Structures are given as structure tokens and as C-alpha cells.
What we know:
By secondary structure, this protein is α+β, with helices and mostly antiparallel strands. The chain has helices at residues 58-71, 94-107, 115-122, and strands at residues 11-18, 29-34, 42-47, 53-57, 86-91, 129-130, 132-137, 145-154. It has a single domain, classed as Immunoglobulin-like, CATH 2.60.40.1120. It is globular. The mean pLDDT is 91.
Amino acid sequence: MTRPRLRFPEHLQVIVADLNSGERVASMAVMLTVHPPAKNPYRILAVTGNDGVALFSRDRVEQTIERSRRNFLMDYEGKIGDCSREADLEVLSGNEVERAIGAMEKFKRHFEVDLDLLESLKSARNAEIVPTAQRFMIDPPPPGTQEVTIQVSRRRESM
């Protein structure tokens, strides 16, 4: 039995909100993970703006997937339409953001790297929160924008 093709929304808006206050949180690195039927999952990063929203456009997700397939032929297989409707969102830890920055810096000489994203990651404030993840269903409503909220807890101040 074949599974239906994923229809990724024109825009996936991920709202990062403080669990206690409900306020949106700016400068948070968020990772979207989509799962193809074989090989490794695709991971796409974004950073919330001043409005607390990380935007994943269909075009950017498709470009990131194509770049991953082109740069790492043995690691990735399939296009966005081949992926599962079940996807994961993760607000990364400060250490994970640092590792992502390090990897992008290391590979930017050899592979195409999104330099705007790299600069945004450098100002991410993920060390201030407890990392969190959630699974959700990609289900674009008309006219093509899906909104998902992920809540974070702030770390307690050191005593």
C-alpha cells in the first residue's frame, strides 16, 4: 500500500511561546524534521523573529532537501512529497545551536550554506530555555499556511 504524497504547506509558521506567560519568544533556533521512507530524515533550521515566529516556506524546505541530497548522495533519498505527514519540531538546546554553528562554519567552504541562517543562529538565545520537542501532523489548510505552537520553559536563574 502506498502512502499519500505529502502536501507541504506554502508556509509553516512555528510559534515559540513561553509556557508560563504565553508570550512569544524571539531568537529561538527551531528544527523541523521530516521523514522520508528511506535513509536519513531531513532537518531544516530556522530562528524565530521578534514576533516569536519561525517561518518554514515550502520553497526553502524543498531547496534545503535538494541541497542535502546533492551534497550527501549516500545519506538522503526522496523529495518532500515522499515524506511522512508526521513531522517533528524541536527548540534546540544552547549546545545543539553551538554544534550547528560549528558544523556550518566548518562546511561552508565545501558546501552551500545559508549564511543568513548562520548569522541568525549566532544570536539565538536557546541557552535561556529548556529544550523541547513535539510531533505534529503536516496538514495544510486553505490557503496554504499551517500554524503550530511549541511551548518552552525558561531556565531558572543560577543561584
